């Protein structure tokens, strides 16, 4: 458990840092951050504050979907928003194009590592992931279809409100799945097999 907790909270903090890197690259945000940034431009506040607020609203949508949050779910809502705002306060806007591309690439790779860390801790999915799995379970549709529909809706809504949609968004969408799979294989905390436990007790 100590390793799982350390891995969970390291992953959530790094997730916020990765979000900030993409925002500062000005080459396109992650899909949900297009929405968060759009809300900032229309209503005010910060990206982190809107990340928390949207996370809470998404978590409320779990109720009719009968999804069950874990420690990681609640921590996700609060810690990522705080982390992205803290990082944005310290991180300058990337200037020349090479620096912007470097920020974008670093943000995408770091996000994959962060996702693998907190998902691999097995302490509960993030609110947005739980929304996806809840719709999959209730509708019988594929994960790919549900995830695509949710993220396209979020991106279009955010872009209409002034959120940054660009090449970074496209690269993120195309590469994040394979990258997470690579890192998750290396970073996931092994789960003990019930059969092995019973065999040990019996022996």
Concise synopsis of the structure shown:
The chain has 203 residues and is an all-alpha fold. It has helices at 2-25, 31-43, 47-65, 71-90, 97-120, 127-139, 143-160, 167-187, 194-202.
State the end-to-end CA separation: 25 Å
Major sheet description = none
Number of domains: 1
Number of helices, counting only DSSP H or I runs of 4 residues or more: 9
What is the alpha-carbon Rg in Å? 18 Å
Mean pLDDT equals 87
Shape category: globular
Strand portion: under 5%
Helix residue percentage: over 70%
Give a count of the beta strands, DSSP E runs of length 2 or more: 0
Q: List low-pLDDT spans.
A: 194-203
> What structural category arises from helix and sheet content?
mainly alpha
Question: What is the ordering of alpha helices and beta strands?
Answer: HHHHHHHHH
